[in-house]
Amino acid sequence: MAALDLLRAAAEALSLLAAAPWVLLLAAAVFLLLAEGLMFIPRVGFILKLCIGSLLAAQMLVLFKVAALGEPPELRTLFEAVYLPLDSMLVLCLCALLPFGAGLAVLALRKKGSAGYFFGNILRQPPPAPGDFIAFKLAMHLVAAPFTFVAAAMVLKGHHGWNALEQGLIAALLYWQAPLALMLLSMAFEWLMSRLQGLLQPRAFAVISLPLLLAYVLLLFAFTYTLSVKAFGL
Questions:
Q1: What Å distances lie between residue 65 and 43, 61, 134, 161, CA to CA?
Q2: For residue 40, how many C-alpha atoms fall within 13 Å in the half-sphere facing its CB?
């Protein structure tokens, strides 16, 4: 996948957002509310966030597929994640938990006890030090990159379970530039947010960060969809 293909996919992602902006924006907001809200549940919150978030992410791709076909997407599609085949659910959760495990392993190597933040109460437990958190996120991004097209293999190609995992891994290997571009986009956004957090007062940061996060999530899903279409030759 050449640089020109990446630029075309980015342009197509922006164009796709214009197909049904309000429904897609609302879906992204619901996705964030459901996925991020789960992490406040003590002890198991992050596990639930990753697993439920992975299922909802697949449905977000379904919404973009519907929009790309010129049909009006419906918000209820997001909740149809409960109808995914069990083996597909397991694979999607695995693809989310393996990067999390890699991040925890890095934390364990850097500073004993840092991982406790993810299995306690995040309102009371202090987060890892900034340097440790960066290492944690970098490990997650690196391990997650090969799984970029697994959900797309289910949505675009109709594969289930382990077959979707295999096809997604093959696509990521053949078109490695796409997972790399998405990973760099995510890391750039996290860097921007960390800079803003250091420069702004907490209240101002909260006001600015929420719409930025919503826009980023929406763009990330749109870009993932258009890159997936190219990776699978559709």
A1: 35, 6, 33, 20
A2: 7
The residues near 79 (Cβ < 8 Å, ≥ 6 apart) are 59
Tokens of 59: 């449905």
What residues have CB less than 8 Å from 69, skipping those under 6 apart? none
Span 201-212, average pLDDT? 88
Over the chain, what is the mean pLDDT? 91
Angle at 98 between CA 101 and CA 130, to 5 degrees: 45
By the 8 A CB rule, do 151 and 54 touch? yes
Are the C-beta atoms of 117 and 130 separated by less than 8 Å? no
pLDDT tens track for 35-83: 888 988 888 989 999 999 999 999 999 999 999 998 989 999 999 999 9
CB 101 within 8 A of CB 147: no
Domain ranges of the chain: 3-231
